[in-house]
Amino acid sequence: MASKALWTMLAMAVAAAHAQTYTVLHRFTGPDGSVPGAGLIADPAGNLFGTTEIGGVFNHGTIFKLGKTGLTVLYSFTGGVDGNGPCDGLVRDTAGNLYGTTYSGGAEAAGTVFKLDTAGAETVLHSFTGKNGDGKWPLAGLIRDAAGNLYGATEFGGEGSGAGTVFKLNQSGEKVLYRFTGGADGNQAYGGVIQDSAGNLYGTTNAGGTRNIGVVFLLDGAGVETVLHSFTGAGDGAFPWASLLRDSAGNLYGTTEYGGASAFGYGVVFKLDSSGVETVLYSFTGGPGGADPVSGLVQDAAGNLYGTAFGGGSAEGLNGNGVVFQIDTTGIETVLHTFSGGADGGHPHGSLWRDAAGNLYGTTANGGIGNNGVVFKIAP
What is the C-alpha separation between 236 and 258, in angstroms, rounded? Predict the structure, then answer.
């Protein structure tokens, strides 16, 4: 372990190299939202949209818009049938309607899928029940295909062990595409799914698999699941939280909260090629470079990957307030910002959004005013 003096010197060097690129766009106060744990999306005009897990008028979470004139709360959840505690980000259709999930609330207090129209009216598209094979408690957000179908995953529910589901939702209602058994096929899909051009879905589970520390899976159009990788914890990572990223060659990229080369297992960034071979691109050490990445990744045209780590940076492991990082194509990490836990924010949980100019936008769950979290921008 580095001495305190060396640790401070390293942290100062990182901050000095990158602090000029970092801007706080909004600090939440509570009434306008608190704990923005998810990533952001943007519309063609550059307005940012996101959710907060708590805060708002009823303290059950919000949907917000952040534009040039500041932040607007588009909707405050009541915690009742409309939903409670949105934990992940949003998707947007061409008409400007927003879609997402709440972890709880709804008719059975098991979570919802919702739509928010451009007038600020919320419609619950589905209330999870956790009964008769339906899922419950969706931690993940949604994806939307060209036909308007929505796809997502639930942490629990389904049949038997209640190890979670993958679902599809359209105007005809919800269809459960797959129910995890909690065994080798996976357990608890925290991160949701992505889709390829053939309609196959890809995702991760936080548990299950051969060692019960998570899998990467493929679900085809017939509802047949294939485990592409089962984590072992022996350097390849353990306990993936986030959704995956897929490139044009079919390679999958993701993060795990724990595992890797470090003795303490502070997580990895991994690549899974189209033949199912996993490569660890970077192992976090828990120090200035970050620890415990629980968010997904974004990629630029050169193949560099960008993400956030929940801990590390200012101190070791979860005592630190997290970082924003870049991993280049040779596996070299660059820390773009080290959070202090103060006015600049702390503990980023959600994925980043990257615009055409290379600016990165994200949120932190804590820090800011009253520890309510922030929205930030990092310029290239």
Answer: 10
* Residues contacting 62, CB < 8 A, separation 6+: 32, 33, 51, 52, 55, 56, 73, 74, 75, 76, 77
Q: Is 116 contained in some domain? A: yes
Question: pTM of the predicted model, to two decimals?
Answer: 0.94
What torsion do the CA atoms of 90, 230, 349, 123 make, to the nearest 10 degrees? Answer: 20
CATH of the domain at 81: 2.120.10.30
- Asked, for residue 196, whether it belongs to a domain, the answer is yes
Distance CA 103, CA 138 (A): 5
Beta bridge partners of 100: 114
Query: 188 in a domain, yes or no?
Result: yes
**pLDDT digit string (tens) for 191-219?**
999 999 999 999 999 999 999 999 999 99
What's the domain range around 136? Answer: 45-52+60-333
Pairwise CA distance, residues 337 & 89, whole Å? 22
pLDDT tens figures, 113-166: 999 999 999 999 999 999 999 999 999 999 999 999 999 999 999 988 899 999
Question: Could you tell me if residue 342 is inside a domain?
Answer: no
